[in-house]
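Bit of a strange request maybe. I'm writing a small parser for structure token strings and I need a real example to test against, not something I typed by hand. Could someone generate the tokens for this chain?
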Amino acid sequence: MRIYGVVGWKNAGKTGLMERLVREITSRGISVSTVKHAHHAFDVDHEGKDSYRHRIAGANEVVLASRKRVAIMQEMRGAEEPSLDALLARLSPVDLVLIEGYKRDAHPKVEAFRAETGNPLIGQDDATVRAVASDTPLAFDRPVFDLNDTKAVANFILGEVGLG
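Reply from user aminoacidic:
Good idea to test on real output. This should exercise your parser:
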């Protein structure tokens, strides 16, 4: 599987860019999966639901399956967070996996950047950032795209991974 990341500081536009990229790339007939890193506790389950009750009772993994979707919830119960490679190994094959976050991992990335956040460019000190999608013109030694020019960013990523 080919992988490409979208990184950036909080409120830089990562999720919006990811959403637009998935829509744009899948519209071209290319299959896409995503991995998103969360820095906080989250829950995809709800109190009172059967699957929630299974987890709370002590199950390490709960698989919730229907004709429309499958969800696998794994409780870490003190174990270390799985590596990106371990998570990627669990995915079904697709043409491209887009990764939101995991800025310290070694895969190629595009950085989402909004000037109003006041944060420095991650790519300034990180060669794995191959381009920046910004809401403001930047002087940078790699390609800079308009944050809202999804087609141009998609073309760049697809070219980088050999799907262009």
